[in-house]
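Inputs:
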Amino acid sequence: MLVIFKRELKVKASYRLTAVVTVISALSGLFSYAFLGNGAVVSTTTTTYGMSLAAFLVSGVAFGSIVSSGVSMFTEYAGPSQIEEVMVSPTDFRLFILSSSLLSLLIGLAITGIMFLSGVMLFNLIYSYNLSLLVAMVMLGIFSSIGLGLIGLGFQIVYKQTYFLSWLLYSFTGLVGNMIVPVQILPGVLQSLAYVTPQYYFFTGIRVALGSNVATATSLLVTFTGYTLILLLIGFASLNWALRSVRQNGTHAWS
Amino acid sequence: MHRDDSARIRLRHVSKSFERKFQIWSGRKSCEHRQVLSDISLDVGQGDIVTIVGKNGSGKTTLTRILSTLVTPERGEAIVCGFDVVREPRQVRKRIGVLLNAGMGGFHARLSGKENLEYYGALYQIPQKEAGERIKALLADLELQDRGADQFQSYSTGMRRRLALARALLPNAPVVLLDEPTLGVDPWSTEQVHKLLLGLVSEGKTIFCTTNNMSEAKTLGKHVFLLDEGKLSPISQSEVMAS
């Protein structure tokens, strides 16, 4: 029994980061609920985004499906069971990855539509629809997710896990990404961190497109477009680096 | 793009080492390297079959993976149909069919053998109709025609290996790279596989095959080489027959 326990301890300890991540994720969730309990939330969503708290939360949860897969969106297609078989075929690996994930992207969009419409109908939520901005934000959300997915894929190919990156992006940015908790009620340091996350621009853009307070969307659109392009560039560079690296050490399949 | 080259496979002074990964908590850093291949040179022409024999861990798989563009050689050059595996990998991939050592991977458990092959037909950029015809013929050649419509998860180990071989032959490539093609395959099907491979050689295909099964080397081997401690040396027919 001790041997089994020792083996598990050794395996778990080899992923030391996991323990740290688990603790901080729990704290992050705790803080999110604590901030949501803050009385200022309702007035913040109304004055800043022109929507009720319920409308704010539903739009966050519904549109979250578009960016929630992000870092891990490509990992199942480059798993140890098939990466080598695909890489010896003449089909470009990037094309393979993008084509394979198309259906998941469409499913993410459908889930968003269903969740959002259900929320609107069930809770009589009121939004003002700036459809062109909404479409632009959704497109940028998809492309930024692809960028993050490529970074995650590169990370997986080299380090054989994406857990840390996923955590960095989703557990932590769940708190500062403007998805559930309005950034405006966060302490200064966390607000500064929010501006680093692509989710902040995505969810803020969605709220601007759906809220009755017509905020200045141009600068947000320009910033998010620039950010998305940078993510895509880093994503492709990261994947190229990972493929070069794995060809050097031969560890395509790891199980 | 066509590039004429007398040897379909040409290896010149190919060497490869891998960084060692030590036991967790051993305190040893990964700065040591293990030499896997040392100064390998080999020419394989059209209509030739070369069999590489060697113990487990002797470097057979690494050599196959270098030729299939999966692994970059450290030194030397590897050329397939006149294209360099490092500088022109896409051209190489258009000219090879590969069965990897772990070659039962990449099949979806819930799709049928035929559907799995159709998927690879698309990855190998074979027109759909042509792929369908080749799949039908390959399933028949490898005695899988009755099970082609069954889900992959219901296949036995030997059937999975034969399906992987069908995948390697699907692109109808001039060079076929096979890493232990009959691993786990029963003797009757092994005989069938050997007949199929020898038939392909007579049609002008170039086959590079690794195995640790000397009887397979005897059957296939006009040219048999021993890979031992990273060095490649030819084995004469009499040595093969005597082993």
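Chain A touches chain B at residues 10, 13-14, 80-82, 84-92, 96, 244, 247-250, 252-253 (CB under 8 Å). Flag for discussion at group meeting.
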